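User: Once you have settled down, look closely at the record that follows, taking as long as you need, and be ready to discuss the fold:
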Amino acid sequence: RDDKHIAFYPEGGHLVNGLESKVGFRVFGSLDVDMCSVVDDRGITLGSLVKMHEDFGVFTLLPDEKRSYFVVSNDGVEHRRFRLPAAISQGYIITASSTHDEHITVRVAASHGQDIAGCQLIGHVRGTVFLDHLFSGQNASGILIPKVTIPSGIVHFTLFDTKGRPVAERLIFNHNVSERPMVRLAFDRDDYGPRTQVHGDIGVHLEDKPVASRMSVSVVKKLSEDEGGTMGLNIVNYLLLQSDVDLPIQSIHQYFQDDDSRTRAKLDLLLMTLGWRKFNWQDVLENKRPDLVFRAEESLSIMGRVTEKKSSHPVKADVTLHVLDEDDFSISRFLTEDDGVFLFTGLRWRDSTEIIIQAEEFNEKKKKKLKEGEIRRTGKKNVDIHLIEPQEFEIPGQYVLPAARHPDAEELEDFNERINFIQKVDSTFNPEWQFNLDEFTVTAQRKTQKELNDSRLKDRYKRTGIPFVESSFKVYTDDLPGSGSYYTDIYDLIRARVPGATVTGSAGSPRRDVFLRSGFSISLPTHANFIVNGVPTDYTIVASIHPARVLAIDVMRGLHATAFYGEKGAGGIISITMREPEDRVIQNDVSIKGILNLKHPGYYHARTFASPDYGPGGENDLYRPDYRNTLYWSGEIVTDDSKGKAECSFYTGDESGIFEVRIEGITTSGYPFTHFGEITVAPRKGNE
């Protein structure tokens, strides 16, 4: 199709001859709906199209078996005709509405010659059935369902005929007022000064009773009056609405700000169009269960196969797994069958852990000669170990939600001036000499090549959505001897080529970090974070990347890092861009016979959000500037059943203005909630 198109969505799934039905529509491109009309195949106009909400609208149609129907557009320049879905000769329709304050209305009708007696209407929300209604004796019937009896979220109505076949479906949304937790947020003061401690009390109640819940709390500066968390995706609108709709819902916040008839009508239309679908119930009715490709993982596991050296022929082998975890050093053994396959299960550790797998051909005679407790090799070690990787999970319907707003040129200019000011002030507190690389123009023989490299990197960044900063320090492996292959790993390359970089640990260490010296620091020293092809990556994965496979290493420090990556950029950002497959430099693979070393990522080990302490006994430098935009974040705040209360405490910085307090959580009974508040931080006065 071209850019001008209309998609049609008959309510219930089908148009049925002789039954008046609603037809939702969605307009694509620059089509002018005001110039569109509904006509039949004789050219008789039956009505006009009117957009009711954004690009969506609805009209009614009474299909005739002798006619076909179209929407025509004639703006005086071009004439277009869009065919409506063909009506079926006999069938059922289902209509639903949630615009009433207290109940949902559902109406079912059958075409001439059919009856709804014996038909069954099933209603469920996320698999929880709340309605099982059997019709009797009429060709049309309507029912009212109290909203308080239906869970909040997308409601699925399905009509089954007398033979148990699904014949019509409708999705609608329900707000259940009894499932809305209320959050009460109170601070010890209305206004705060710089570097002042803030105490906050949080209470969560459901129907005026305290409830247990878990929540996250963040305190972030509002850069403009119209900016705020209420405008974007949050835990409530995602779990209840967006997660069950394939396409992104623009301005999703509008459906949750007010629970009135107008908003509910918009939701009805939204789910008639974006939420329109036809379900295949046949497998469900026949009790067929889907094949589980990915079963629930109860522990970590490592699977592989042992083969003859440089061959695909499997061998029966003794396999030993050494787990070099600081808290749980362990050794496990596995004897394979003739297929050479081994599987270690029941493994549990947090964060990345070094693993050594050792294999040897099974030799029964020598094995029997071992004394009790004796451990030594009994078979040939000239074997290869191949890990069997789990099948990758393909996530359908991936999309990127657009940013709520983008800074304009004036805001960017103010931001750059602010960065320059902070760098000058902060440099007076740094004992080391500082050089700002973007103040120098270096002329060398490779300048033309650098420009080509920058251009190439910009193109890659544009594809992956990574910000390109001209003044950041970049290492292009094509400029290095052997295209970087002379370095043992990424850390070795960074230590040798990145000025002001300190690398802890050595090759094979359980953990290695990079600390970047910077002219701007707002907190205690923290390690740099890695990004590989735009994706935040653990240091253990970085250790496994050979420098010859890397195109460029981009080192971003200071305010540029925190501006683009928030608190994750406090210690700097090291962005690694991999070569395209066709550009990779071939290297010889050097390995030890019968031994495989690897680092397993393990379970994620959450890190604590860095927050300065300016109270008595605090270890922070009281004279160093503190211009944090994010004052506080915690993802593990818990309330209990008895009081439903929790506390939070943090310090303000030197940044003044209005800070938004954003709370997102879920009760132990599964009801999500959000709450937004504000605190004001006054500017420093005089010589304070």
User: Anything to note?
Assistant: Residues 409-427 form the longest helix (19 residues). The mean pLDDT is 81.
